[in-house]
Amino acid sequence: MIKHRYLPMTEQDQKEMLDVVGVSSIDELFEDIPEQVRFKGMYDIKPAKSEAALMKELAQLAAKNKDTASYTSFLGAGVYNHYKPVIVDHVISRSEFYTAYTPYQPEISQGELQAIFEFQTMIAELTGMELANSSLYDGGTALAEAGMLAAGHTRRKKIIVSEAVHPEYRDVVKTYADGQSIEVVTAPQKDGVTDYEALQQLMDSDTAAVMVQYPNFFGQIEDIQPIGELAHEHKALFVVSANPLALGILTPPGKLGADICVGDAQPFGIAESFGGPHCGYFAVTKKLMRKVPGRLVGETVDGEGRRGYVLTLQAREQHIRRDKATSNICSNQALLALAASVAMTALGKQGMREMALQNIAKTRYAKEAFEQAGFEVVYQGAHFNEIVVNTKQDVTAMNKALLEKGIIGGFDLARVDERFVNHVLLAVTELRTKEEIDALVAEMGALHA
Amino acid sequence: MHKDNQPLIFELTKEGRVGYNLEALDVPSYDLADLVPATYIREEQAELPEVSELDIMRHYTALSRRNHGVDSGFYPLGSCTMKYNPKINETVARYAGFSHVHPLQDEATVQGAMELLYDLQTSLTEITGMDEVTLQPAAGAHGEWTALMMIRAFHEANGEGHRNKVIVPDTAHGTNPASATVAGFETVTVQSDENGLVDIEDLRKVVGEDTAALMLTNPNTLGLFEENIIEMTELIHSVGGKVYYDGANLNAVMSKARPGDMGFDCVHLNLHKTFTGPHGGGGPGSGPVGVKADLIPFLPKPVLVKQEDGSFHFDYNRPQSIGRVKPYYGNFGINVRAYTYIRTMGPDGLKAVTEYAVLNANYMMRRLEPYFELPFNRHCKHEFVLSGRIQKKLGVRTLDMAKRLLDFGYHPPTTYFPLNVEEALMIEPTETESKETLDAFCDIMIQIAKEAEETPEVVQDAPHTTVVSRLDETRAARTPVLRYQG
């Protein structure tokens, strides 16, 4: 009989339990599996390893990766290397949080429910929207869910997405839309921002939503207010995908006419983690409250009048509505929403603004440094976190050379659009020092020379 | 546990307090008005908390004490597989080489992460008996939808885009019909027979040339193995449909029966259930999808492949792919944990997991059978369903019994599901619980059954010991308060 630290069954237990069940062996409990489909061998997978040996092996595997803790990273494109208050990991490591399921039993889940209620409040505050849900998988699927909501709400079959929205987000919107036979049309970008005139031409009476990103994929803070007005003139919903950190200093989408504001809370205390898990957020106007996908936590009272929190408005959800649900989602990213809440709390009212200001100042400094070194920074609008630099060389080869200097370079834009050959999308966060930025400019200059 | 309210973090705020620490700005500071057009400069700051680091730690510690997790006590929540969440998983997922890796780094710099993912998808291919696995979907529901989108693309590629019906049993998880709708299908429900299994005759009536797929979990949500599985998969295949395996209940059959061998064409797994995720209070999860060969061309992009030189590569050149289902490559952090678990257990460990999970469930079922109605009296798999009908006649509902369990430090079973059992109590003990824990829980269940007869009000008014008593859910829904109002 196997002995394993996760399996408390002893031989004596087994014997006593089999007696109660009235069978002589465990195998008898599987006799209802038809003979032809019974699996009789052992899985052909690697044998078990002891705790210490496995930790060593996996540490070695992890060490094969170049990580942003030991390298200086200028890579962003939707996932950022930010200050992560140490306290975040201590809070989310409390196993009362991470070993719990969805809070279906509110009397013993008040901690999680209250934490989510606080998260919903912080997101609503930052985005300037009336309410936010408890989170979704990530920013990309949140944007796709916004598209589904808009199509259902307006009973229209076309979504217009700006080309200045993250290309991977656009791809996800497209896949979701395919399932619902919704057409996705791309509004082209011009000078790194949504081409307003081209967008005007695309608008029609079947347009359910117009989607933009703020700041956009190229780091530009584009003039989105007129786009919202245009969407509303055509009775379409205005959907804004926003970096929530930037909202520490930028006018919140709720004040710019957004009907739905989505994004990813990854900048708040969430590790890059090779792309996930991160934390999508989803905020709306009150008018759309009963159409929101995913979990919502609401405040109420118990029999003695004590304040408490419950999952609410569940008539929207799959376990009640089955095929009529507003979405098939039945989880949220609770633990990451908790991480983001702790980071937002640690930053607080002052820190949110200060950190956002540092990001915009350092982005500006980098832009000027590249220009002074003779590089073309191709878009001249207002920037947050990111700039596009014409490197005048193959970006992949350049990044290889930078790696040897301890630098993880930016995103090679030619990967998404061949018009961008030799152009790199560089991300500068508050963690990049002046020396690091100067070193990047110098190395890129030297490589070109 | 004291019953006072824990103030909201916003109520602990004091102007001027901080909980963060940023390096002083080392580049020139700019006037925001010079960088950003006036329309886009925020005028009013977001009302976020202003608290010290100790305030934060005490606040969240207080909240954690008002929350029940697997580490707090037994959690026999049916269909959720609330097993122990190994601590090594948490340590490994936090290695810098896994947690501080950016998804868009050059592939040459992330070969270790890709190797782990590749080995995980290979292991899951073997465990499910499928031909290939994608690790992209973020959770079970996301995996269901991904697989259905692939089925849809498959039929369309074969000129059979008219297949618009997805059949689901009445015992199915609620996500199944919801996912079918999101993938653009109509749902047809097939009834269960008196043994709690899919009624084959009813299934025969609903299949046809418009059948796109049958979605099935096996064992089903009653914890019963669908013995007619071969007949069912053959029936669906004979009319050109695909058969989908909801892997939420895989803990019941590991090393005993593989979905691929049962005739399933695709399967999703919940790595946060069978493979110790953990659940995180409702997420994050991970919902890989396994497919048979004829669905491989439709896998979501990118597909992780091993190249001839032994290196790993994300392949985007997949013209028939359904496209991208998620930015980047799935919930990597959860996949690392699942991989660590599989490597901790090995083949004989996973076999023992299923055997003990099933023995534990059968043991509890037999211990409780004299006190509760057992609608389907046969061996169960990883979970079983009782009915509270006997107690209901005494005026005690299943909801009341669930709330009474809270007084004894237990998370209750899943209640009122599946829908075809009145006053259902769905119990899944998992393999990581000891006989002593199962016995203690059964003793309390028996005590509650006695209370229902002798002192029903004690059960009806439960819970008595929690930080709040039953909450007014009607009020929450009628006048929604979804954020702190100040």
UniProtKB/TrEMBL annotation, chain A:
<comment type="similarity">
    <text>Belongs to the GcvP family. N-terminal subunit subfamily.</text>
</comment>
<dbReference type="InterPro" id="IPR015421">
    <property type="entry name" value="PyrdxlP-dep_Trfase_major"/>
</dbReference>
<comment type="function">
    <text>The glycine cleavage system catalyzes the degradation of glycine. The P protein binds the alpha-amino group of glycine through its pyridoxal phosphate cofactor; CO(2) is released and the remaining methylamine moiety is then transferred to the lipoamide cofactor of the H protein.</text>
</comment>
<feature type="domain" description="Glycine cleavage system P-protein N-terminal">
    <location>
        <begin position="4"/>
        <end position="442"/>
    </location>
</feature>
<dbReference type="InterPro" id="IPR049315">
    <property type="entry name" value="GDC-P_N"/>
</dbReference>
<dbReference type="Pfam" id="PF02347">
    <property type="entry name" value="GDC-P"/>
</dbReference>
<dbReference type="InterPro" id="IPR020581">
    <property type="entry name" value="GDC_P"/>
</dbReference>
<dbReference type="GO" id="GO:0019464">
    <property type="term" value="P:glycine decarboxylation via glycine cleavage system"/>
</dbReference>
<dbReference type="InterPro" id="IPR015422">
    <property type="entry name" value="PyrdxlP-dep_Trfase_small"/>
</dbReference>
<dbReference type="GO" id="GO:0009116">
    <property type="term" value="P:nucleoside metabolic process"/>
</dbReference>
<keyword id="KW-0560">Oxidoreductase</keyword>
<protein>
    <recommendedName>
        <fullName>Probable glycine dehydrogenase (decarboxylating) subunit 1</fullName>
        <ecNumber>1.4.4.2</ecNumber>
    </recommendedName>
</protein>
<dbReference type="GO" id="GO:0004375">
    <property type="term" value="F:glycine dehydrogenase (decarboxylating) activity"/>
</dbReference>
<comment type="subunit">
    <text>The glycine cleavage system is composed of four proteins: P, T, L and H. In this organism, the P 'protein' is a heterodimer of two subunits.</text>
</comment>
<dbReference type="InterPro" id="IPR023010">
    <property type="entry name" value="GcvPA"/>
</dbReference>
<dbReference type="InterPro" id="IPR015424">
    <property type="entry name" value="PyrdxlP-dep_Trfase"/>
</dbReference>
UniProtKB/TrEMBL annotation, chain B:
<dbReference type="InterPro" id="IPR049315">
    <property type="entry name" value="GDC-P_N"/>
</dbReference>
<comment type="function">
    <text>The glycine cleavage system catalyzes the degradation of glycine. The P protein binds the alpha-amino group of glycine through its pyridoxal phosphate cofactor; CO(2) is released and the remaining methylamine moiety is then transferred to the lipoamide cofactor of the H protein.</text>
</comment>
<dbReference type="InterPro" id="IPR023012">
    <property type="entry name" value="GcvPB"/>
</dbReference>
<dbReference type="Pfam" id="PF02347">
    <property type="entry name" value="GDC-P"/>
</dbReference>
<dbReference type="InterPro" id="IPR015421">
    <property type="entry name" value="PyrdxlP-dep_Trfase_major"/>
</dbReference>
<dbReference type="GO" id="GO:0030170">
    <property type="term" value="F:pyridoxal phosphate binding"/>
</dbReference>
<dbReference type="GO" id="GO:0019464">
    <property type="term" value="P:glycine decarboxylation via glycine cleavage system"/>
</dbReference>
<dbReference type="GO" id="GO:0005960">
    <property type="term" value="C:glycine cleavage complex"/>
</dbReference>
<keyword id="KW-0560">Oxidoreductase</keyword>
<dbReference type="InterPro" id="IPR049316">
    <property type="entry name" value="GDC-P_C"/>
</dbReference>
<dbReference type="InterPro" id="IPR015424">
    <property type="entry name" value="PyrdxlP-dep_Trfase"/>
</dbReference>
<dbReference type="GO" id="GO:0004375">
    <property type="term" value="F:glycine dehydrogenase (decarboxylating) activity"/>
</dbReference>
<feature type="domain" description="Glycine cleavage system P-protein N-terminal">
    <location>
        <begin position="33"/>
        <end position="305"/>
    </location>
</feature>
<keyword id="KW-0663">Pyridoxal phosphate</keyword>
<dbReference type="Pfam" id="PF21478">
    <property type="entry name" value="GcvP2_C"/>
</dbReference>
<comment type="similarity">
    <text>Belongs to the GcvP family. C-terminal subunit subfamily.</text>
</comment>
<feature type="domain" description="Glycine dehydrogenase C-terminal">
    <location>
        <begin position="354"/>
        <end position="459"/>
    </location>
</feature>
<dbReference type="GO" id="GO:0005829">
    <property type="term" value="C:cytosol"/>
</dbReference>
<comment type="subunit">
    <text>The glycine cleavage system is composed of four proteins: P, T, L and H. In this organism, the P 'protein' is a heterodimer of two subunits.</text>
</comment>
<dbReference type="InterPro" id="IPR020581">
    <property type="entry name" value="GDC_P"/>
</dbReference>
<dbReference type="InterPro" id="IPR015422">
    <property type="entry name" value="PyrdxlP-dep_Trfase_small"/>
</dbReference>
<dbReference type="GO" id="GO:0016594">
    <property type="term" value="F:glycine binding"/>
</dbReference>
